[in-house]
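Just curious: can you write whichever protein you like plus the matching structure tokens?

***
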Amino acid sequence: MNIGSNTEYTSKVFSGLDAKKSTVQRSRFEGCRFVNCDFSIARITECEFNDCEFRNSKLSSVDCDQSKLIGATFRDCKAVGANWTRLDWSSYRLGAPVLFESCDISFSVFSSLVLRGLCLRDCKAHDVDFSRSDLERSVFCRTDLQDSRFSGCRLEKCDFREATNYVIDPLENSIKEAQFCSPEVLSLLSRFNIEIDQID
């Protein structure tokens, strides 16, 4: 099954779809599943994805200009280099938070967004830009955050348990009631230029 513009799809399953470099405009997807699909470098403009699931699919460098994700789930997907700020997040609070599970979202951009409750679980998130975002109550469990940027973020009540390689400055970010695990939590002290001895 191909995807067309100006079309409404309900409870459809798209399997093995090759939409690489394609353009889809002003279509609406309600309760659809995308399995083993390729949206790499695709241009998806003014579309709406409501309670949709993407599984084992490629979305690297996808351009979702003014499209909406309401309650979307991504599992085992590769979405490297995606600029998520291009989406229209005005309806984000209407549905369940966006979930990324076992995905590679490295080199993506989430800066200056209000994405409370965002969930990254068991993900690879290298060099991701979260700067100036409101991520209250978000989940980063078991996610590798190497070289990702948290600056001016609201991280209250976030769950960083078993996350690795994060660098979060507690003077530049609000981390009240956030959850961390030892020994990774010691990285919060890195900016203070102090020595920490491990006692057996």
